[in-house]
From TrEMBL:
Residues annotated as domain HTH cro/C1-type: 3-35
Name of this protein: Transcriptional regulator with XRE-family HTH domain
SUPFAM superfamilies listed in its UniProt record: lambda repressor-like DNA-binding domains
GO terms for MF: DNA binding
Top-level taxonomic group: Bacteria
Length: 38
């Protein structure tokens, strides 16, 4: 995953696809729902 994509998600410029959420959750070693309840 590109750094630019993550920056866009963090800045609410773009919403991540579910597959991207899974990759991020795996990298952070958290459950995908933990990313949605922030």
């Amino acid at each position: 995953m590109e750094r630019r994509s993550i920056q866009r998600y963090e800045n609410a410029v773009r919403d991540p696809q579910y597959s991207d959420l899974l990759l991020i959750a795996h990298a952070l070693r958290v459950h995908v729902t933990d990313l949605l309840h922030g």
